[in-house]
Specification:
binds zinc ion
C-alpha cells in the first residue's frame, strides 16, 4: 500500500499528475485544513479542494519550507 502524504503546509508546492488547462502542474498551498485552498503557479487561479482530492492528484510535493 502506498503511503500518501496528506498533511500539507502553507507554502508547499504540489506537482499534480494532470496539468491544469493553462498547462501548469504546480500548485501552491494557500490554506491548509480539511479543505485546502490552492493556487495554480502558472495562471494564479485559486481552487478549493479537499485534502483527499489533492492527495489523489499529487505526483510530488515540493516543500518550500524545507529549502536549504
Ligand atoms: Zn493554471
Amino acid at each position: 500500500m502506498a503511503i500518501v502524504k496528506t498533511d500539507y503546509a502553507i507554502g508547499d508546492i504540489l506537482e499534480f499528475k494532470k496539468s491544469h488547462p493553462c498547462g501548469g502542474t504546480r500548485w501552491k498551498i494557500l490554506r491548509a485544513g480539511v479543505d485546502c485552498k490552492i493556487e495554480c503557479e502558472t495562471c494564479k487561479r485559486i481552487v478549493i479542494m479537499s485534502r483527499l482530492e489533492i492527495s489523489k492528484r499529487v505526483k510530488k510535493v515540493i516543500s518550500s519550507s524545507q529549502q536549504s
